[in-house]
Design goal:
The chain has about 475 residues and is α/β, with parallel strands linked by helices. It folds into 3 domains: about 5-135, Alpha-helical ferredoxin (Fumarate Reductase Iron-sulfur Protein, Chain B, domain 2); about 150-240 and about 405-475, FAD/NAD(P)-binding domain (3-Layer(bba) Sandwich), CATH 3.50.50; about 245-400, FAD/NAD(P)-binding domain (3-Layer(bba) Sandwich). The chain is about 35% helix and about 15% strand. Strand 10 and strand 11 form a beta hairpin. The N and C termini lie far apart (about 60 Å). Bound molecules: flavin-adenine dinucleotide and iron/sulfur cluster (2 copies). One iron/sulfur cluster binds next to helix 3 and helix 4.
C-alpha cells in the first residue's frame, strides 16, 4: 500500500475541471467535468489510509471511504463500486451534491496543510463508471418473503428504504403525488448541480427490480394512511417538508414576489420538457429581469444561479448576516460569485415596493451584535441605512416547514413535534401509529440528501425487524 497511497505530499489536490463561468452561465449542464481515469486514480492515491478515518466518521452513511480510495488508486474500479454502493443507495448523487466541505472532505486529516482528498469527485467517478460499464444492477431479492410495505414519498429517504426492503424480499409500493420519482432531487435541486438523467436512471433500475410506483397519488387526498395500513404490513412516511417560510413584510403579496421552490420547480420542469404555463407566461422566468433573492442558504444559491442562467438583467442576493455566517455551502457561494451574482451582505429585507407588480425590494443594513445563548452573533438594523434594490422578480428563499400533517393525512393520532415534524421513537423510527415509520426531512426538518438516504436505510432495517417480530407473535398466538 505504502508506495501507491500517501501521495498527498507529492501530489496537489486537483478537483475535476470546472467549466468557465462565462460558458456555464449559458446553460443548465453540470459545471464540473469528470475526472479522467488517471487523474481519479492519482487523486485517490493522496489518501493516507488513516487508522481512524475522520472522513468516514463524518460521512452520514459511514461510507468506507479509505477502501474505495485505495481500490481506485489501484485501478480496481468494479470492487471500488461494490464498496461505495454497499452503504449508499445514490453514491452518484452524493458525489455531486453533498456539501463535502462540511462532511467527509472537511474532516479529512490532510485538509490542514495539504488540502483534503477529493472524496466526492472520486465517488462520482467510480459510480459514473459503474453505470457506463453496466455494473449497476436492479435491486432484486434472492427470494420473496411474502410481506409488503407502503412507502409514501419517492424522495431519497423513501427510495433508499424501498431499495433496501426490496432486496430483503419485501413487495414494495411507493406512492408519490408527483409524476416523477426523485422528490427534491428532481424538482428542487437544479440541473447544473445534479443532471436529472442521473436520478431517472435509478428510477428505471428500481422498477426493473420490482418496486411498484404509484405516481400522481396524494396520500391524505386520494388514499388514506388507514387504507395503506390495512393493505400492507408496514408504512414508511418520507414526504419531506414543503411549506415555504414566509416574510411578513409590506408588499409581500405583490405579483412578482414568489417562493423559491415554485421558481425552481418551474425551471426544473421546463428543463425536463414539461409544459409549464407559469414559466411560459413569464411569471416564473427571470429572463431580462432584475432579480432579488432573499436568503443565504443553499436554496437561495440555487435560485440566484438559476436566474443567471435564465438570462436575468441583474441578480442580487440579500442576506442579513455576513459571508462568514452564511448557512449555505461556501463552494456554492463561490460558484455564484464567479457567475456574476451580487451579494448584499448584512442586508435584511424591509418591504416590497410596487403598484400592481413588484418593482423593488426595500432593505436595511445590519450589523453583527453580541452572541446569543447559542453563541451565534445577533444581527441588529443600522438606523437610517435603508436602501432599495430594483426588482421585477423577488424570490423568497427562507427555508421550509412541514405542513399540518395530522390534518393533511386525516390522522389525528399521528404525533408531531413542536416544530410540526413527525415524532418518532428514535430507536425504532416508529411514529405514534403502530407499524407506521417515518424518516428524512419530515422527521429532521429541511436537511440533506445524504441524511435522507441514511434514514431510509435505517428505517428499512427497523421495518424488517418489526414485520418479522409481528409475524412471530402471530405464529405464537395460533
Ligand atoms: P423529498 O426529497 O422532499 O421527497 C418527498 C417526496 O414526498 C416528494 O416526492 C413529494 O412529492 C412526496 N410527497 C409529499 N407529500 C406527499 C403526499 N401527501 N402523498 C404522496 N407523496 C407525497 N441536499 C443536498 O444534500 N445537497 C444539495 O445540494 C441540496 N440542494 C437542495 C436544493 C433545494 C432547492 C432544496 C429545496 C433542497 C436541497 N437539498 C439538498 C435538500 C434535499 O433535497 C432534501 O434534504 C432531501 O431531498 C430530503 O429527502 P426526503 O426523501 O426526506 O424528501
Ligand atoms: Fe462524502 Fe457525501 Fe460521499 Fe459521504 S456520501 S463520502 S459525505 S460525498
Ligand atoms: Fe484518507 Fe483523508 Fe479519510 Fe484519512 S481522512 S482516510 S487521508 S480521505
Amino acid at each position: 500500500m505504502a508506495e501507491r497511497m500517501l501521495q498527498f505530499v507529492r501530489l496537489q489536490q486537483q478537483t475535476p475541471e470546472k467549466r468557465p463561468a462565462t460558458i456555464r452561465r449559458e446553460d443548465f449542464a453540470e459545471i464540473y467535468d469528470r475526472f479522467d481515469p488517471s487523474r481519479a486514480s492519482e487523486q485517490a492515491s493522496r489518501c493516507s489510509q488513516c487508522g481512524v478515518p475522520f472522513c468516514q466518521v463524518h460521512c452520514p452513511l459511514n461510507n468506507n471511504i479509505p477502501d474505495w480510495l485505495k481500490l481506485t488508486a489501484e485501478g480496481r474500479l468494479e470492487e471500488a463500486y461494490e464498496v461505495a454502493s454497499a452503504t449508499n443507495t445514490f453514491p452518484e448523487v452524493c458525489g455531486r451534491v453533498c456539501p463535502q466541505d462540511r462532511l467527509c472532505e472537511g474532516n479529512c486529516v490532510i485538509e490542514k496543510g495539504f488540502d483534503s482528498v477529493t472524496i466526492g469527485s472520486v465517488e462520482r467517478y467510480i459510480v459514473d463508471t459503474a453505470w457506463e460499464k453496466g455494473w449497476v444492477k436492479p435491486p432484486t431479492p434472492s427470494r420473496e418473503n411474502g410481506r409488503s410495505v407502503a412507502i409514501i414519498g419517492a424522495g431519497p429517504a423513501g427510495l433508499a428504504a424501498a431499495e433496501r426492503l426490496r432486496v430483503r424480499g419485501f413487495a414494495v409500493d411507493v406512492y408519490d403525488r408527483y409524476d416523477r420519482v426523485g422528490g427534491l432531487m428532481i424538482y428542487g435541486i437544479p440541473n447544473f448541480k445534479l443532471e436529472k438523467e442521473v436520478v431517472l436512471a435509478r428510477w428505471k433500475q428500481f422498477e426493473a427490480g420490482g418496486i411498484r410506483f404509484h405516481l400522481g397519488v396524494e396520500i391524505g387526498k386520494d388514499i388514506t394512511i388507514e387504507q395503506l395500513r390495512a393493505e400492507h404490513d408496514a408504512v414508511f412516511i418520507a414526504t419531506g417538508v414543503y411549506k415555504a417560510r414566509d416574510v411578513e413584510l409590506p408588499g409581500a403579496d405583490l405579483p412578482g414576489v414568489v417562493p423559491a421552490l415554485d421558481y425552481l420547480t418551474a425551471s426544473n420542469r421546463k428543463g425536463l420538457g414539461d409544459a409549464v404555463p407559469e414559466f411560459d407566461s413569464g411569471a416564473l422566468d427571470a429572463e431580462g429581469k432584475h432579480v432579488v433573492v432573499i436568503g443565504g442558504g443553499d436554496t437561495a444559491m440555487d435560485c440566484v444561479r438559476t436566474a443567471v442562467r435564465q438570462g436575468a438583467a441583474s441578480v442580487t442576493c440579500l442576506y442579513r448576516r455576513d459571508k462568514a455566517n452564511m448557512p449555505g455551502s461556501m463552494r456554492e457561494v463561490k460558484n455564484a460569485e464567479e457567475e456574476g451574482v451580487t451579494f448584499a451582505w448584512l442586508s435584511a429585507p424591509d418591504g416590497f415596493e410596487g403598484a400592481g407588480h413588484v418593482t423593488g425590494v426595500r432593505a436595511v443594513r445590519m450589523h453583527l451584535g453580541l452572541p446569543d445563548a447559542t453563541g451565534r452573533q445577533q444581527v441588529e438594523p443600522i438606523p437610517g441605512s435603508e436602501f432599495t434594490v430594483k426588482a421585477d422578480l423577488a424570490i423568497k428563499a427562507l427555508g421550509f416547514d412541514p405542513e399540518d400533517l395530522p390534518s393533511l393525512f386525516g390522522e389525528p393520532g399521528l404525533g408531531v413535534t413542536r416544530w410540526g415534524t413527525v415524532k418518532v421513537d428514535h430507536r425504532t423510527m416508529m411514529t405514534s401509529l403502530p407499524g407506521v415509520f417515518a424518516g428524512g426531512d419530515i422527521v429532521r426538518g429541511a436537511s440533506l440528501v445524504v441524511w435522507g438516504i441514511r434514514d431510509g436505510r435505517d428505517a428499512a432495517e427497523r421495518i424488517e425487524q418489526y414485520v418479522m417480530d409481528q409475524a412471530r407473535v402471530a405464529v405464537a398466538a395460533e
